[in-house]
Specification:
mainly alpha, single chain, 38 helices
Length: about 950
């Protein structure tokens, strides 16, 4: 809908009415008229409202102007009245001035006195704060007490009913001042007790702080002593509860010791009074009784004391208004509520002793918890040395015994009574934890090595070798390790440093390790364990006296009064390490025994390598871990060594002093070596039993062969011999016989395989008892097989008959086995006493199968063949033959034409298997052996052979 143009037209736009009639029609003009009239009425109404409102405002303004005129007239009238009144007063005063002048002067003096007291009261809070900022709490206390005295003089206390006193009513500013001074008492008490906790506070400051407390609380000297000791106990608790950060622990422990010592010194200086007739306080080297002298100076009423310790002594000359202060203010002296009685000597001793006992419990508990954060003996030694340096200082040690004797009537050893046992317990705990860690890691290393060896053996036997280490291969086959070359076989200084000059702690060459069959696995295990033990030993050396300390300060150690001997607990420290190392090794031995127990019933091939590894480990641990010996023997290690050049003298001296000089540490070391040796022998015994069983089972199978073909396969070539016999006619008859000169193949195979297996495990380093036990076990089991052969029934079907030739070969085999594997004869005993009775039984049974006439002929020749065979195979089977079976008299017993076939051998035991030597060495060994051993003649009969 379109907008009406007449309505949209504004009134202000209508300029000429004629134009409207031209532009709009009649109806539109009427609408415009109505619109204009409506706007005119609206403007009239607005004008009427505006005029009404302005009129009311005008009436209100007129009323205000009238009131202002009336007020001004009243003020002017009042001023005129005051002028007239003052004029009348001036005229009346001239007559009465002479009579009131005296009263005005008295009133003025009283006013000035009150004003000066008020001024002093207003200045005292600032002076109290200044004294407290300078830590002069006694001065602040005196000023506070003076302020309280001023309150009483001015009667500033609030009256009953809540009304102020007249002075407060006239001077309202004093209301705030009275409220301010009321807080000084608690502030001074709090700061004074806080000062009592400090370590670096002078004795005089302590005495003044205690006097301040006594004046404010009205307490006695005994209560002051209790406050002092309570503050120091709180300071000890604060030190113990601080956070721990490494070197902070040393500072905390030293602070505790310093606080304890300083407390006793200050207790002596502040509370102790000498007996009658003794030096008065301040006359001797040590000051004492400061509390009572300070208290006497502050509270004394004598004129001299008043002149020297007046509270306002310094201020009297600084201002003219001080002259108006009354004498009760200028000569003010504080006073105690009760008489200060000196502390009796017995009471002082009992109180201090009770405080020491209480602090001892707290210090032991707190320091014990602090030392838990110390993880090394070096840290413990650093704390101990710091405490020793503190207690050895001149400021502490010079008069310590005197102070303790006068206060406690006994000496007080701070280190021995408070800290030594805590440090020793922490040392034992650290040593135990570290040795247990060594034990755990060593057992883990042992278990890992055993598992690796078992896996290596399985892979080797199955023909697979998935990247295993060479050290594990060497452990399975020691011979490959012994005859392999490596860069470390000889040390760089081997050319000019002999073995005797090389210390036990120095590096050993690889060749020296190979001479003892110490495989890389054993070396790695022992070197790892030895390095950890060396770290423990080096850490322990920080806690023990060094050679310089012993030589330089040993005689005077602990000679000062309050210092202590740092090394009195050295035996207990060494015993802790000794016990930890023994427990560590025994734990390892327990693990080894459990491994051996798991392998002992029927050890497999994979188990045998690990068994031999453990045997070699136990055998060499004492030698490859020299720090283990140092840890167990301790200081006796230096005196335990024997001279190298005189073994005979060492033996003689050892026999003479063995029973008298064996210390407990040496006994424990000997016992540990015995345990290691027993464990090693047990492991070797498992290996020898398993080896002998495998080899002798094959031997028994070949021996009990029942077919002719099987027997022929084990037969060897016989020797043809021509013998001269005398016939009945007296003529000589030449006959040809055939005799065995070699053992059967299964006997040779047994001995060769036995020798190979012994060499495979490093036979030259095997313990002699183990090797002898192995040989004896093989001989015993072989005899068992021979004896079972005699028990067979000849008539049984399938049993091959025992012919003379077979009996001769078996007899030769048995005698050769007995000669090779039999044990050495002892002096003064026949060979028969060492033999198994079954040997004679088997020999008798075999000889029964041989013609007696032939046996008499064959026996000397068999003995000759047997001797020759034994000598010729002694190099090949050197480890089985042993040094005691090398036929030292062979040069006189063997025909000269056969001497060049026999290699000269050593006459004493050596590390390696038997090797050829030069003839000059043989001659020397012969000349040395002739005086001690009788020559062994070749056997000529069957009885002498055994």
């Amino acid at each position: 809908m379109a907008e009406d143009p007449a309505l949209s037209l504004r009134v202000s736009e209508i300029k000429d009415p004629a134009v409207l009639f031209e532009r709009y029609n009649t109806e539109e003009i009427r609408r415009i008229e109505r619109k204009v009239r409506g706007e005119i009425e609206q403007k009239k109404e607005e004008l009427r409202q505006m005029v009404g409102e302005r009129y009311r405002d005008l009436i209100d303004a007129a009323d205000t102007i009238g009131e202002m005129r009336q007020c001004s007239e009243s003020v002017v009238q009042s001023i005129q009245d005051m002028h007239q009144y003052c004029h009348s007063l001036k005229q009346g005063k001239a007559g009465a001035s002479s009579c009131g002048r005296e009263s005005q002067r008295q009133w003025q003096e009283k006013f000035y006195t009150m004003a000066s007291q008020i001024k002093l009261l207003l200045e005292i809070p600032e002076r109290i704060w200044s004294a407290m900022e300078a830590s002069q709490y006694l001065q602040a206390t005196q000023l506070y007490l003076l302020c309280c005295h001023l309150h009483s003089q001015l009667q500033l206390e609030a009256a009953t009913g809540g009304h102020y006193s007249p002075v407060l009513a006239r001077f309202p500013i004093l209301v705030r001042q009275v409220a301010t001074t009321g807080h000084f008492r608690s502030t001074i008490l709090l700061d004074s007790r806080s000062l009592l906790r400090g370590r670096a506070v002078s004795d005089q400051a302590i005495a003044e702080a205690l006097v301040s407390t006594m004046l404010l609380e009205g307490s006695s000297p005994r209560q002051a002593l209790a406050d002092f000791l309570l503050a120091r106990k709180a300071s000890i608790h604060q030190l113990l509860n601080q956070p721990q950060h490494g070197a902070r622990i040393k500072a905390q422990v030293c602070s505790l010791v310093e606080l304890l010592v300083t407390t006793l010194y200050q207790a002596y200086a502040v509370f102790y009074l000498p007996p009658e007739g003794g030096p008065r306080p301040g006359e001797g080297v040590l000051s004492c009784g400061m509390l009572f002298s300070t208290l006497d100076n502050v509270t004394s009423t004598t004129p001299a004391a008043k002149g020297s310790r007046r509270v306002l002594q310094e201020e009297t000359s600084t201002g003219s208004w001080f002259t108006y202060l009354p004498s009760s203010i200028t000569e003010f002296q504080p006073a105690l509520r009760t008489l200060a009685q000196p502390i009796q000597k017995e009471q002082l001793r009992e109180t201090l002793q009770q405080w020491i006992n209480t602090c001892k419990e707290d210090i032991c508990r707190g320091v014990g918890s602090l030392l838990v954060y110390v993880k090394s003996l070096k840290g413990l030694a650093a704390i101990r040395d710091a405490v020793w340096d503190l207690l050895s200082s001149d400021s502490i040690s010079q008069h310590w015994n005197t102070v303790c004797q006068r206060l406690l009537e006994r000496p007080l050893a701070v280190w021995d009574d408070f800290l030594q046992q805590l440090f020793l317990q922490r040392l034992q705990a650290i040593t135990k934890d570290e040795t247990e860690a060594i034990s755990t890691s060593s057992v883990q290393l042992l278990t890992s090595a055993v598992r690796d060896l078992e896996g290596q053996t399985i892979h080797t036997s199955s023909g697979t070798n998935p990247g295993s280490g060479r050290s594990s291969q060497y452990e399975v086959d020691v011979a490959s390790f012994l005859w392999s070359e490596s860069p470390g076989d000889l040390l760089n200084d081997a050319g000019w440093v002999s073995v005797n000059q090389r210390g036990q702690q120095q590096q050993r060459s690889g060749l020296a390790m190979k001479t003892q069959a110490l495989t890389p696995c054993v070396q790695n295990f022992c070197s790892s364990m030895d390095a950890k033990l060396k770290a423990r030993l080096d850490d322990l050396q920080h806690y023990l006296p060094s050679q310089d300390t012993v030589s330089s300060s040993g005689p005077t150690e602990g000679s000062s009064a309050s210092s202590f001997n740092r090394f009195t607990d050295s035996p207990a420290v060494e015993e802790a390490l000794r016990g930890g190392c023994l427990a560590c090794v025994r734990h390892i031995l327990s693990s080894i025994r459990s491994e051996l127990a798991a392998a002992s019933p029927h050890p497999s091939l994979a188990r045998l390598s690990s068994v031999l590894f453990m045997a070699r480990l136990c055998q060499s641990m004492g030698e490859l871990c020299p720090n283990l010996k140092h840890c167990i023997l301790g200081k006796q290690m230096g005196s335990d060594s024997t001279p190298m050049g005189t073994p005979r003298q060492g033996k003689k001296l050892g026999k003479a002093r063995a029973a008298a000089e064996v210390s407990p540490a040496q006994a424990k070391w000997a016992g540990l070596k015995e345990e290691l040796l027993n464990c090693s022998m047990e492991a070797y015994r498992i290996w020898s039993s398993a080896l002998s069983k495998v080899l002798l089972d094959k031997f028994g199978t070949a021996l009990h062969a029942e077919s002719a073909g099987a027997i022929l396969t084990t037969a060897t070539n016989w020797e043809d011999l021509e013998i001269q016999e005398e016939a009945e006619s007296g003529s000589s008859i030449t006959s040809k016989i055939r005799l065995p000169v070699q053992p059967s193949w299964f006997v040779q195979s047994l001995l060769f395989q036995l020798c190979v297996e012994v060499n495979r495990v490093g036979g030259h380093a095997l313990p002699r008892p183990t090797l002898q036990e192995l040989l004896q076990t093989c001989l015993t089991q072989a005899l068992q097989h021979y004896h079972s052969l005699t028990q067979q029934d000849p008539s049984k079907e399938g049993v091959f008959p025992m012919t003379q030739n077979r009996a001769l070969q078996l007899l030769f085999d048995l005698r050769y086995l007995n000669t090779t594997l039999g044990s050495k004869m002892e002096e003064g005993k026949s060979s028969r006493s060492h033999q198994d009775p079954r040997i004679h039984d088997v020999c008798d049974w075999l000889e029964s199968c041989i013609d007696p006439f032939d046996l008499d002929v064959f026996t000397p020749l068999l003995n000759t063949n047997l001797n020759r065979l034994s000598q010729r195979t002694s190099v090949l089977l050197g480890l089985l033959m042993g040094s005691e079976k090398q036929f030292a008299s062979r040069s006189s017993s063997v025909n000269s034409q056969e001497a060049y076939n026999i290699l000269p051998l050593t006459s004493n035991q050596i590390r390696f298997g038997l090797l050829p030597l030069s003839m000059s060495t043989v001659r020397k060994s012969k000349s040395a052996s002739r005086g001690s051993d009788a020559p062994h003649q070749p056997v000529s009969s069957r009885a002498e052979m055994f």
